[in-house]
Queue: 2 jobs
Job 1
Amino acid sequence: MHIPDGYLDLRIALLMWALSISVVGFSLKKVSEKKESNAMIGVISAAIFASQMLNWPIPGGTSAHFVGGALAGILLGPYAGCIAMTSVLAVQALIYGDGGIFSLGANIWNMAVVSVFVGWYIYKALERFSKNLGSFFAGWLSITLSASFVGIEIGLSTAFKYSVFVATSVMAFWHGLLGIIEGIITAGVVGYVFSHRAESEEKLSKKAVTLIALLIFLSPLFAYLAEIVGYAEPLENLAVHLNLKDTQTYNGLFPGYTIPGMNSYLGTFLSGAVGVVIFLSLAYMRKYASAD
Amino acid sequence: MHLLIEKTLREASKYFHDFFIHEYTKKTYLHRIDPALKIACTSILVLLSILTFKLTKILVVLLSIYILAFNVGIDMVMLLKRSWLFAFFAMVIVMPVSFLERDYSYAFIFPLRVLSSISALQLLILTTKFNEMLSALKRLKAPEVILEIVWLTYRYTVVMFRDLMNILLAREARRLRKSGHVEVFRKGGIALGLFFLRSVEKGEMIELAMKSRGKSFEYKSRYINPLPYLAFILGITIIWVIA
């Protein structure tokens, strides 16, 4: 899942760096506030690194390996888990050349932010029913969503000729299948560790994130309703009325809040999700800019 | 389980091979350049590789990386060996779209961009010790907490890997009969769970040890005049702009 340099457009690589820095910076702040043990994070990172070497043979001559984002989040909590995975990715990039320098931001976003935080929230949402079920879905869905983000990033890059729809579908489909193994391993490890060390569990409020997630999921419905009532921007109506020509040369990454080549509702949903992430990151930066 | 062990042992030998090989023992001119400068110049080389689809420009960067490696005495076969797989993989990925759109040059140029940027990064890795790199990042004002964690990850990877191997081998030694797939998965899960449990305990012990003994990845060294290296990178950049 590591993206090497050369796959991403520079603007997307830099955008992903900005997003990752904001989340990792916020996580660092949280970890420092809670005075979490650096040794613990470092050793768990090393353990995740080592367990990534366990390859599970897949019929057809290939193999899949454990990624461990959700596991890191569940074992250490989302913030320390994010730092642990960032550390693993940094070592992989700087020692093994696995994942490039400019694409490291995107790799951190996919495997240290999306995988860890999504995994952790899924686990927390489902643990009341069953911890095993929660950690299985956390492992499975976190890796599938991470892979989907890889698809979106490389699909939006002009350097990569596949459309965002193809890239995202392929990545999500294969990792959706392979992710089942990730889910099984995550459930097994979490069950074993928590049965021996119940105090390792972590808690965090999730009201705000639930509300934001709900709004993102509702965004295609608004797009549908806008289409039904024939809604257009008032200025656009005026321009049509005045017979003005469109001379805009740059239409942005998501023209008209859609993603080129993708179903318009799915495009609205994804562009909305990306927008929310950007604004959340900016809000976090703004909130903590004056703190230190 | 035996299949898993065999596969793991294969991965282990490859892992150790890669792990130690990056500490390239041969000392070259590039080893004595300030790592902070090397990181900056490597970023420039990667940037020049990924900012263009023009074949001549990519070839300029790629050739200059290998000329630089040859000139300072880096094993070029090793450099190529550590870079080609990523490029080959990129070629396999983009080949279908290249044929579908009848843009055959894309199947060649895209992997070449990847090869060029990976080679630049591998040249940095082959000529810089990890503690030097972290020390340079510290001087470049990277957050100290994260550098410390990265340093711990690097230091304990070998230890943790040996722990994992020991657990798996102990399980195998205690096995008396051939297990079914469900049993293999169940025992594998327990083994991995035990491994992470031990990791948590080891983390606590290491934290205590670090508090009593202190911790540091400081690296002090005298670096040589980087002017020829900087002039070379500047020259490549000028040729790249003109090409």
Job 2
Amino acid sequence: MTSSSSAGALVAAALLAVSTPALAHVTFETARAAPNATYKGVLRIPHGCNGQPTLKVQVRIPEGVIDARPMPKAGWTLETARAPYAKTYRQHGEPVSEGVTGITWSGSLEDGHYDEFVFQARITDAFAAGSTVHFPVVQTCANGTEEWTQIPAAEQDPHSLSHPAPGVTLVAAPGASASATAGSLAIEQPWSRATPPGAKVGGGYLRITNKGQEPDRLVGGSFPLAGRVEMHEMSLDGTVMRMKPVQGGLAIEPGRTLEFKPGGYHLMFMDLKEPLRAGQTHKGTLVFEKAGTVEVEYAVRPMGAQGAAEHKHH
Amino acid sequence: MILKRSLLLPLSVFLVAALTLLVTVLLLVPEPQQNQSRVPIGGPFRLTSHEGKPFTEADLKGKPFAVFFGFTHCPEVCPTTLYDLTQDLQALGPDADKLNVAFITVDPARDTPELLKSYLSSFDPRIVGLTGTEEEIAAVAKEYKVYFRKVPTDGDYTMDHTATIFLMDSKGDFYGTSNFQESDEVRRSKLQQLVKNG
């Protein structure tokens, strides 16, 4: 009895020894993010290096992630490294070709203590929904380092790595499509509807709120699968469905919301080159008189859809 | 008493006569009344199906049927209504085979049989698409009191059109209407009644 229970304890201790490092990786508090959106990364540092206190936490911002902004931390000095990006990205309609590529916090964190290091950054459309963005982290101590820099290969299980880089998986929430902002304009939930084969038109729906002090005007837009985008107003006049092209754009006064929705104003994707299929996302643009050209991403909903999301899903 | 007794016979004769007259009137009158109250919606037409074959009202009659006018360059009401009808036919189960459903284009210039065929491949295969010449479409629209008009856009056009779903009985007479704004429950119960009584 005595020998068997001590053997059991030994097995338990061995299991604990094996499972402990897996629990103690450097990870993000939120490992999911919306594609093409700003992400708040909270890095969790669970221990030092082999019992020594952590003196430095360094994060590398990968290509395709722009506008990185670290959160200063009391008792820690903050440094950022700036460098040109490999590609040019667009932020608020403006080209962006360089920015913060590394963040370093310097201070001291006891091995037995836990702390969090925070930054925000925009994960651009260089990363598709479903992909994982890895942020390599190096923890530096007085003697030695812990390098959380391993990036799993395509089909590799990240749990099989001893020092995986913290990752964020991009998840396109169905219906809760990406929002965009352009200056003082907030553009919410752009969506479209699947079209039957042979259909030459599709509808685009979204909400634009003017949070600024100046009026603006939506004057046009583009959609990748359409020859052109028009604005139409639909109305039910008795039993007759009437369609009226909007001339000269639509004004959005300060504090007001312009809504494109079934049964009212809608964007018309004209001369569709191929059918829109449920589950797709398509990037288009909206052109405003003052805010300029703004990228929007339409989530394609099933044919019977009447809104950006089913009510039951919210 | 004497007076009442003496009146009993003539009174009962009168009552029987009156009753007979009333029943006769009730039996006779509804016939002309029904004819007068027949809603003048629907009638003969000559069109072409999405299979490219000649198609007339005779191909719909024999079963109750639903007719909807629209066009494929229609962003919302037409695909939504066809989608709703597709869901309805599935919900009706075996009863769906006791019903015909037709989609008649008001835009024959663009909606060829081939285009209708590919467009309708997204929907229930029992829905037949109908097109024709401008004159043929104008004639069937007139039979159904359907309004349609071209609305010019930037170098192109869209259409205004009546978005009613016409419910017709097996003889081709008007039975009722529905539309895309009605709830699924209401529309389906109307279709069920049409299958039962139409």
